[in-house]
Description:
Layout: H1 2-17, H2 33-39, H3 45-58, H4 60-74, E1 78-79, E2 85-86, H5 91-102, H6 107-128, H7 140-150, H8 155-177, H9 182-203, H10 216-224
Antiparallel strand pairs: 1-2
Amino acid sequence: MTELTDTIRQTQLLAALFSPAFPIGAFSYSHGIEAAIASGDVDDATTAHDWIETILLGGSGRNDAILMANAYNAVKLHAAKDGQLAGGRNAEIEAINELAFALSSGVERAQENRELGVNFTRMTEQVYQLDIGLSPPLAYPVAAGLAARHLGCELQLSLSLFLQSFIGNLISVVVRAVPLGQSDGQIILARLMPAMAALADEASTTPLDDIGGYAILADHASILHETLETRIYRT
């Protein structure tokens, strides 16, 4: 019963952290998909699924999961006041954070990573009083890994909820901007769930040296987004 109760607690925390209702502004970033829609590369449910799946498995989805897992594992917790666990920044986390920004394919991708990370860090401090290191800026997946570790959440479960949040936001972009029906969005999400679960399992033990990808068109779209004359999303 205790183990079940803890699993429920962790799921509640992670569902809150990675919910669209957690106010970090994720809805205002398209990750370059707005440019792909404008160019006609994403124009229906099939192309939307394929584009998002490529980002998940061969782009920033996979890389962010690896960064998050490595940040999670790099935390050195110690007892603080009132028996709470605290930690903070260390050299390994600094290096992971620098790598997270170095992987940005352009200015807007770095902006997205930075602004989401800053907002997420601020909200977790305000809501959960977490000492995850406020020296700016933390990249979003790094901040997510630190928060999950400090809250005592299991790594693979944390990665699963993080990835589902990330993919859910991309799906909401295509549903609104292509546009697609809400049912199409849910079908895409359901089709990608096994891949997200497998990726969470893989990323939990993947070293930083295995970061990489093949989502070249997605990276290119995020760069082209800067030049769009009409833009709804920030990236």
